[in-house]
Amino acid sequence: MNGQMRELEAWILEAWKQVEISANGKDRVATQNALDTVTHLEQLKEQQEALDKKILASISAKSVTEIHPATATEQPDALIPLGRRKRPTNRPREIRIGAQRETIRYAYEILLTVANWIIEQGKMLPTIPNFIQSTKKGFAASAGPKLLKSGQFIEVGDDQKVLLYKARTILDYCGFQSVKFKVEFADGSELER
Prior knowledge:
7 strands, 13% strand, single chain, alpha+beta, 5 helices, 45% helix
């Protein structure tokens, strides 16, 4: 019996004592309230028992290899509880913008490379609060700002899809609507924006 069930049993026992005390005192309202409490707690107990059975059945249905702790030859994040595998990350390998080709390893480098390319073309990036700023101050606490060649900071703490969108957006904003950039990924696929 888990701790929640023991606690529920204790509450039920206490509620029955309250029913007995109220009944002995011939207080009908208090007795009815205590009985309502017992009924409610009994329903919670039934729900908890049903949930425990579902959890046990779900765990029992999984193979041992799906729920065992990671071995020394496996990466710690390779196993996800109850056999759900994490989708492998398809990291970017290279970005091409204009005539420039640059090797990259992380998704945030897509946005960083595009922003620095715009600066190299002689354009200034706009100041956009919590996105492109002249100082690190003012960024959200969870932000991951990176330094650009212009001395500005750009926030790159987003997922790959958002970073691609932001890279295309700043190109368009800075007058490079006709310029495309292409990202090659580790699996050999390419994406052009």
